[in-house]
Amino acid sequence: DSRLVAKIQGGNQVIAGTIATNIQTDISDCSYQLEASGGSAPPTAVIEANFTTIHNLILVPKCVRCHSPNGERPSEDYSDYASTLSTGKVQPGDAVGSGLYKECADGDMPTGAGTQPLSSEELSAIANWINDGALNN
Where are the alpha helices (DSSP H) in the chain? Predict the structure, then answer.
């Protein structure tokens, strides 16, 4: 819920896509480190079942570090809508048949230090977005 992230997400800052994604990821990592050290983290944002919210609140902070052109798994790029669909991990209308949802629901993803498993609210938002057609909304 940082002001900088809100401005980036709202399009109020002219920052290149990759740099904007990196800034959002770094702020999220900082929040996790603060929480792990006993500090208080910002309140959790409401996760709506649309791509913009899922991208900004789940994919960027928990997936894009590895699943991006410069990450460990560039063939599974979640850095934007077109790339997310081109992974083949999203089957519009079928969350249960979608690798993105299945791997997260099974606990296989996300991985990495400081990355928490997806909450039931996050999983539900992804499932609903996919089942509703995985629209670019």
Answer: 3-9, 17-36, 51-54, 60-62, 81-86, 99-105, 120-131
